[in-house]
Please model this.
Amino acid sequence: MIGFIIVAATFLSAMGTFLLLTGLGPVEPSPDVVTRALALNGILIVAVIGVIGFEIYKLWQAWREGRAGARLHFRIVALFSLIATLPAVAVAGAFAVTLNQGFDRWFETRTRQIVDNVLTVANAYMGEHARVLRGDLIGIATAVDAAKALYDYEPTRFEAGFEAQASLRGVQSAFLLDGDGNVILRNDVDPKFHAAMPPSNAMSEAKKGTPVLISPGLSTNQVGGLLKLRAYQDTYLYVVRELNAEVLNNLRLAQESAVEYRQLESNRSAVQTTFLLIFVGLTLVLLLSAIWFGLAFANGLVSPIRRLISAAGEVANGNLLVQVPVGGRSDDLGSLAATFNKMTVQVRTQRQELLALNDQADRRRRFTEAVLTGVTAAVVGVTNDGLISIANKSAGELMGRDEQELIGRSLVDDVPGVEPLLRAAMADDSRIYQGTFTLLRPGVERTVSARVASDRSPGSSHGYVVTLDDISDLISAQRTSAWADVARRIAHEIKNPLTPIQLSAERIRRRYGKLVDEEDTVFNRCVDTIIRQVGDIGRMVDEFSGFARMPKPTKEKHDLGESIRESVFLISVGHPDVDFTTQLPETPMIAYFDNRLISQAITNLVKNATEAIEALPAPERSEGKVHVEAKMLGTDCVVEVIDNGIGLPVAERHRLLEPYMTTREKGTGLGLAIVRKIIEEHDGRIELLDAPEVAHGGRGAMIRVTLPSGSGAQETT
Model:
């Protein structure tokens, strides 16, 4: 608003100055007035330049900061400025040429000659009249001097003769004046004619005795002549003749024009400068006004566009509540703003609907993930190409990989046994295919129950859902339960007759031993065999009973390292020919476990290691070594028992953990089964591996046990 007021005031001031300098205004264009007007125009022009400079500065700031619409704003202002400047420059050039040529024509030689000729003609006309009047003045003065006697003695005749001379000479009035200019005698040819009296300077000049001619004044068209009479005492003749008023006005106008022309010629540079100032001022005012209006128009045009760009940026950043003010605009920009607002409302509504659907889908996804996470079975999504697209945590644990690592891998590469089921489902996805197969993992063979079903998705997103359930523990538990039941029955059925058999054999020896020939060793050997075998059977029955009656662990806080030291020491005492070494952490390995059961398990593992060394040929036994190492991996305690004995078989290795599976002649097959049961009761796991030396051509086995530390309060089961 302030800018508009300043521009309007500058424009009005420029127009007023133009009217003033051209003489069309009510005020006389004096130098002082012109100077003040130009100063006022200069101040207002500086103010307009300041307003425009401020707008350009804001535009430059917007350009530098990269605001929305700044480039478009700058282009529009530049275009308006160019459109306003080009006509102004063209007009300025035309005006300069026209002004110079016009002034050249005004002051060329021919024009100057015409003005001089007009002035010469006027002067000649006035000279001619002056000569005629001078002649008439002298003639009348001569006649009056000759009639001195009549003047003195016959006044009436003198007056008649004086009138006759005036009429004859063609003057309108004739006077006789004294030295003070008082009228002595007056003669008017036309009574209505009012003659102007001579000025005092003319009287002073006439006293010299020469004729004095009086030119017409500004307000009269009379020509006068004054001459001192010789025959009279201090008396003057004054005659007046009236010239043609129109001719005299033309002559006067010619003289004034000539004088003005001379003044213009002498002030030519000043006139050109004045016209140049007028034009420059008007041009500058119009140019600045055009630039300001261009800025104002650009602001009005770009502002809604800028608001639209800013609003679009807000929408791009996710703010769908933004609205563009429409105001009272009914043009295309107003329609565009209204359409934009309508679009944001629709997008906001659709976004809310999508968010609601996404929230619902997200809840379902979280529910599905929670279900998949809580499910112990491995659930895998497979594409048409057999690649894994999704997998739960159990799938990663089953396949020994991270969940993210499984994505994009072929399921058949990690789980070969599922290939027939997956191929069958791809051939006919109208039914569910299921089966059981064995999955080999390092040191462990797992029994897996698999189900393959189509996910019924349309198009290219069609895939399959594969459920892999590790039923190894279930089968093992079933076998263990069955073996425990068998062991109970065997112990019950076998243990009862063992004692009578042993007692009968001993009684036979006591009663019939003396009757047998001492040289006959068969009797004693048979009785000893019976007693020894009964003892072996008794010990076996005791192991069966112990396996069947194995108690639940009571977990308490203990140092696992201490339990390992005691177990290794217990076995090392009975096997001095084997080199036992341990590698335990310096800090205690605190965990929650049943110390008696875990000590039993470690003792069995170390004992099995020594038995594996004893199974070697006699020359190689002297190099027997058993190494026990324990360490903490996160919250798990890992115990490794490594020996350089005969090692573990490659085929059916995993079955050594089952009851009554053994590779030794005198083994019952319950040692590792008992260890496995103890470890599983502690939520741990056991792995049967080759010793590290096997990779370098050596021999031996490594049994790895992993137990959770059970951090927290005491757990009793």
